[in-house]
Amino acid sequence: MPEPRATDTGNPGRRSLSVNRILFPLDVLYQSAGIAPPTARRVSPDQVPPPYRRLLVHENSMTRTLERQFGGPISLRTLSILRKGSSYLRRVLLVRASTGEPVAMGAARITLSALTPQLQARIVRNEVPLGRVLHDAGVDYKSRPRAFLAVTPHQELMGVFWMPRPRTLYGRRTDMIYRGRRIGEVVEILSRGLIRSRR
């Protein structure tokens, strides 16, 4: 598998990390890799169909939610990374450790300076899902949803999710809140394979 693309852009201007876009930070990571992001629209929680609603409409870690769903560990495959000042951004694929089947794509922007040097080092090694890194360190954060998403996949997204044809995907955009402070933003998109792969 090719190495993830890494870019360090130093200290960016304010416009370069706009947290107001619906797919931020996923759109930034796609654009840095020269790929147009997929299209997405906001939906209400009631418009998210099962089983995705149960997996998205909460304030818990997606890693732990998926591990409970499948009764086993979730592994990480890093797709791209980006450094912008004190912000660390990465796009990853979460897969079932037992089968390699993709279950979610996540894109996160983390304020590294909000965390200990030990946690920063674990995160930038890109070996373990973010939720597990923080949980293992006792960081009791909340994933506070800002939007629920219906996503129309493009060719790249269909490829990582093993999709033979485009069908609507569902996800969410969350703020990571720790001790009353936002320490990052995350976009999580679930694979349609969740319907058939719990066995």
Spatial order of strands in the largest sheet: 1-3-4-5-8-7-6-2
CATH architecture grouping = 3-Layer(aba) Sandwich
The CATH class name reads Alpha Beta
Query: Ends: how far apart?
Result: 27 Å
> What's the gyration radius in Å?
16 Å
**Count of domains:** 1
What would you note in describing this structure?
The protein has one domain: Chorismate lyase-like (Chorismate lyase), CATH 3.40.1410.10. Helix content is 21%, strand content 36%. It is built from 6 helices and 8 strands. A hairpin with a 5-residue loop joins strand 4 and strand 5. The longest helix has 9 residues. It is globular, with a radius of gyration of 16 Å.
Write the layout of secondary structure elements.
Blueprint: E1 5-8, H1 26-32, E2 39-43, H2 52-56, H3 62-70, E3 74-84, E4 87-96, E5 102-111, H4 117-124, H5 130-136, E6 142-152, H6 155-160, E7 169-178, E8 181-190
Parallel strand pairs: 1-3
Antiparallel strand pairs: 2-6, 3-4, 4-5, 5-8, 6-7, 7-8
Summary of the model, kept short:
The protein is an alpha+beta fold. It contains 6 helices and 8 strands.
List keywords for this structure.
single chain; 199 residues; 36% strand; alpha+beta; Chorismate lyase; 8-stranded mixed beta sheet
